[in-house]
Description:
globular; 0% strand; mainly alpha
Amino acid sequence: MRRTKSDAKIRNFIGFALEGAYRTDFEQFWNKYLPFHQLSIWLTLPVETRSQIMKRTKTVLQFIIFLSLGVFLIWFSTRSFTENEINRVKQLVFNAKLGIVVPCILILLMSHYFRAIRWKMMIKPLGKHPSTLNVFFAVLTGFFFNLLFPRLGEVMKCSLLGKYEKIPVDRLIGTMVAERVIDLLCLIVVILLTISSQMGLVGEYARELSLQVISKIKASPATIFYVVILIMGLTILVYWLYKKAGDTALGVKIKEMVKGVIEGLVSIKKVERPFLFVFYTLAIWFLYLSSIRVGFYALEDLVQLGWVPSLTVLTFGSFAMIATQGGIGAYQFAVQKTLALYGINEVSGLAFGWLLWSVQTVMLFLVGPASLLLLFIKNKPSKTISSN
């Protein structure tokens, strides 16, 4: 009934303006030119429903924007290629040595397995002991869903593992956030290693970039001041809203969620074997690096490249995977431009970028749905047949 009254008010107001000022047949105008009158229905929807619709819309828009950027970068990386050069790229990718591609896939799968074991170590301090296979399948499923929509994988792997292992999802999200912090620190270490091992090649560029950033900060110190004030203001606002929620149903729910996330974050301090935890962390990134190093042998033009170029590809490739949806376009472009630093022509560089990206993506499109199915089968309740 609320929708009818609200809709009628809007109709009457616009009708009065149109019929009084322009002598327009309002009913015809309304039905033909104003389909947005359904806005009144939107305003009467529950807040939670509108919030869900907005979140889904945001996710779809992110997907479209990132995918569009990826398509643009694909065009940008081949814009100067002739038809023969494009065919050469295809030939290099499809004729890559299968005996090298398969080990690369196994190396990547091993890195995901180590990631699953490390995640399990972070979950144990929460008083839960999930199955290693369940954690492994959840990790693979998460990587697969990340290819489809931004950040969907993190939500899916926490939800699936929480469902099958009876673990609160908010606590799992806390451990996932801690994982992302660790990966960020590892990426910083990789960047520093890349710069320090090739000071003559990328060190000068990094130094110039740093000087530019510092000069901009010096030129506009007020900007830094405003940023600090903004961060402090947001912190105070969040704290005030958190306290104001009090003991209401929403407030209790928010407090429980925040508590779960904090417990997940501090779980890293409570791992039973910290040295083993560090070993798995280093192993994950070493396997990422090894997949690139071994991959060089798949193309004849790249067999002479060693560990240092692999490190550089890992660095810029990691940023590229974040830049666009699933790294499409950005990863190939980053690898192409990175290998150009080592004298590799653009055709071979782009072909290697496509090869690495295809190996990772095709592997996840195969093992992702399979892992989701295996999770269901493994955790399917067994039916017992009782005899009368």
